[in-house]
Amino acid sequence: MIDFVYSNAEREMATFGFDAVTRSHCRMCHGGCGTLVYTKNGKVAKIAGDPECPIAHGTLCSKGLASAELAYHPDRLTHPVKRIGPKGSGKWQQISWDEALDLIAEKMLGYKERFGAESVVFGYGTGRENEAAIYRMANLFGTPNGLTAGHLCYGPRISTGIITCGSNPVVDYENDPQCVMVWGNNLVIANSDEYKGESLSNCLDKGAKLIVVDPRLTRLAARADIWLQLRPGTDAALALGMLGVIIDEELYDKEFVAEFVHGWEPFVARVRGYPLDRVAAITGLAGDDIAAAARLFATAKPAGIQWGVAIEQQINCADNNRLLMALMGITGNIDKPGGQVLFRTPRIRNVGKFGAHDMLSQEQEAKRLGGERFRLAGNFGIINPKCVWDAIVSEQPYPVKMLFFISSNPIMTRANAAAVVEALNRVEFMAVADFFITPTAELADVVLPAATWLEMDYIGDFWKRHGYILPRRKVVQIGECRSDHDMLNDLAHRIGQGEFWWDDFEQGLDYILEPMGITWQQFKQMHYVRGEVEYEKHKQRGFSTPTRKFELYSTRLEKWGYDPLPSYREPTESPISTPELFKDYPYILVTGARSPGFFHTENFQVGALRETQPDPLLEIHPETAAKHGIADGQWVVIESPRGKVRQRAKLFGGILPGVVGAQHAWWYPEMKESGHGWAESNINVLTEDAYESCDPAMGANSVRTLLCKIYRDPDQRSPGEREKTR
Amino acid sequence: MSGLALIVDHEACWGCMACEVACKKENRVEPGLKFIRVSDQAVHLRHGKPYFSYQVDACRHSECAGTPCVAVCPTDAISVRADGVVVMDMDDCVACDLCPPACPYDAIVFNARLGVTQKCNMCHGRIDAGLIPACADNICLAHCIYFGDPAQIRESIEAKRRVRDRC
User: Fold this and answer.
1) Residue ranges per domain, chain A?
2) Is residue B116 situated within a structural domain?
3) Does ipTM top 0.95?
4) What does CATH list as the number for A169-341?
5) CA of B44 vs chain A CAs: smallest distance (Å)
6) Is B3 an interface residue toward A (CB < 8 Å)?
7) Is A333 in a helix, a strand, or coil?
């Protein structure tokens, strides 16, 4: 009998007559999984996982498998274009790279001269491994304004991690945690940071206990030993309640607390303000269940918390992160094998160094938009988007004249879409780099064709905190597309930054790798490199914080004028804080449910992925749906005080009757007019961006805890059918 | 005869649908059609707690009791190979439409463009070349799609279940 072997590249080549197979590294989300890319006649013919990848071991998600369909999509932008009609007219003219980059350079230098470098804002969306290059250009140019998703995604984990314990603690899946508490995260679907779902899945297959905190019954929640279906936005209260149980029952690591914690007594006093009955009332959970989860987490050794973006898109963003770290810390799981580890990156010039943050003058740094208001964010180079929209529209505190967005579609992804659209319509000049003409790109002056991961050389997972870096090897060239790094490297020479960049971006990769004593060409021959793994580093050196301790009481936040201890704040829009509004908008709206085939605003035009889910879905409890006469699959209007959009009802008993769960980022590339239907289902038409609703330190928007009403749409046509009759 | 089977451990499935896309890419499946399909089950109570799981449907080949599609096919377009793989040969299909309703797993689809019915052929071309079917070739993050000897597969699934459920 034939010996069947997984991922048999040799036999694959022989059977299908492929010309070559290249080991590379996917970036259909923000990186992680090793791939084998087979080519034939100069084109990508098949993509599979790389069994030798230490992150995913050859498994690959639907997005990775469909990468070539995106890369070769007929609508793909493959050459630079400039707009020749009014914004949104869809009238474009093909131009050369030289003309495009010269135009961008001329605008940048012109605005810098007339309004200061700060009038030019660079932006990216979710990190696509281009962050460091974008920051490098912004910092060297002298603008302190990098508009990213960092205020409400990952940036909070990094910044609160650094002020609490020096870095971002990552679950050490490779050393078998005995209990994983998955908090507002769906790692098996959402391709989160660092490790991917396979590592968690393996660990559960080995028998690890599972606690899930989520307002929705995910499959992880269905498999959990304990599922805590909390009222959305009350995570901080729940964590405080669990900490109280752990402290009261003396389940904490006394040695760790005595030797390595800063601020234990005041922290305990703060936790005492949240007794279990109060926490139960806030969260809507049974006190016994909270206590059971706390005991399970505290007594399983080692244990980890799989955390993600859900806790960050709330008014309690920074404190949620700090409270989860408190749970990791006082249970003695920090930097333990199988616990929550502060991994080291290999000896390279890291993202901070490469990002040239030390090259921005203090004078320019002081001008960071919103830096005075959101001081935790400001100190980590992160800004709140409204600060930029306001500076465009009202020119306060100074005018913003130019935006340059790379891999970002803020019309779809930033709170209060109407304000975003107004700002993008008003801004004098906007450049965008992307794969397609997105709703955001429609309003640009110049659009640059960005390379997919199949078309670039890069150091994959450069910015992650699991300690691995993996070579992403260029496989094909498509049209005139260029990687984000390559186009910035070219632009740098046109704006007088040449001395800090390179003749060719490959030398930039050499520069990153240089401290390890290897070049890109040498790295390319390797599978991966991992930083030295060392546990319990604090026993030698303490933590990299001002007190050298694990700061439950944050001396940095205190210095910046914030409460040094974490607490719970009620969402600004909720049944409790706005009872009058609640009468008209009687449901809590959560907006975080992810679908496996999409990555935020991407892939809606990729047929094989769109088929996995053709329409946006709104999860409604069957009792709630019955009350409104809504049947499964019907188009439903979701309305908030800001506006209304429509998604299709999915009757789902796994959500509370008082909560509805929408999906974000949906647009319709197949609609050729009306901005590709950006307003049809875009949940950010409903979200708000008032500063008062943001985390006071981080500037994170409350995009997951708002109030809404729902009703069956009298117009049951699909968006495409509606467009036809417009 | 050494039987080959493709068996899914539904309990282990996370619903990521990578198998759907792997299949579509490998077999160039017509837009709108699927040879393998992931669906979620309605939420219900299990041991007093809300619960749901995923169901992955594709042709069960020789694991399907009586292989009714083979029985109803008037042209022998559907046949059972010696290794147990049930293959639908499009060239012999006359689009009589008898097999789709006969399939207990709703795993046979009609390709309107070509005017034929189609289904999972367990990537028999790959199997004959010594390659594992696309959906089972290590792409699944749950490692829940098995290919090979059915008795061994069942043993593996049961062993995994015992560890997972800690019994």
Assistant:
1) 169-341, 579-724
2) yes
3) yes
4) 3.40.228.10
5) 8
6) no
7) coil
Distance from the B11 Cα atom to the nearest Cα atom in chain A, whole angstroms: 9
At A673 the pLDDT is: 78
Q: Which of A7, A51, A59 sits opposite B140 (nearest CB)?
A: A59
What CATH number does the domain containing B155 carry? 3.30.70.20
The pair of structure tokens assigned to A41 is 């006649």
* Residues of chain A falling short of pLDDT 70: 1-2, 726
Please report residues of B whose CB lies closer than 8 A to that of A201: 12, 14, 141-143
Q: How many CB atoms lie within 10 A of CB A507?
A: 13
B139: in domain: yes
Task: Give tens-digit pLDDT for B54-112.
Answer: 999 999 999 999 999 999 999 999 999 999 999 999 999 999 999 999 999 999 999 99
Q: CA-based angle A574:A149:A79, to the nearest 5?
A: 135
The CATH code for residues A579-724 is 2.40.40.20
**CA nearest neighbour of B6 among B143, B121, B145:** B145
Query: Does residue B167 sit within a domain?
Result: no
Distance from CA of A32 to the nearest CA of B (A): 13
Return the residue in A37, A53, A61 with the most chain B beta carbons within 10 A, the one to mutate for interface testing: A61
Q: Measure CA A356 to chain center.
A: 22
Contacts of A625 in chain B (CB under 8 A): none
Spatial separation of the C-alpha atoms in residues A261 and B17, rounded to whole Å: 44
> Does a cis peptide bond (omega within 30 degrees of 0) precede residue A397?
yes
Check residue A726 and give its pLDDT: 66
Tokens of A433: 């780099």
Instruction: Say how far apart CA A108 and CA B1 lie, in whole Å.
Output: 72
User: How many domains, in total, are found in chain B?
Assistant: 1
Strand ranges inside chain B, DSSP E:
5-8, 37-40, 44-46, 49-51, 54-57, 78-80, 86-88, 109-111, 116-118, 145-148
Specify if B138 maps to a domain: yes
**Domain containing B24: what range?**
5-162
- Collect all residues of chain B within an 8 Å Cβ-Cβ radius of residue A597: 17, 21
Task: Tell me if chain A has a CB within 8 Å of the CB of B48.
Answer: no
Give the span between the Cα atoms of A687 and A692, in whole angstroms: 13
**Is B163 close to A207, i.e. CB distance below 8 A?**
yes
What pLDDT does residue A724 have? 80
Asked whether the predicted pLDDT for residue B125 surpasses 80, the reply is yes
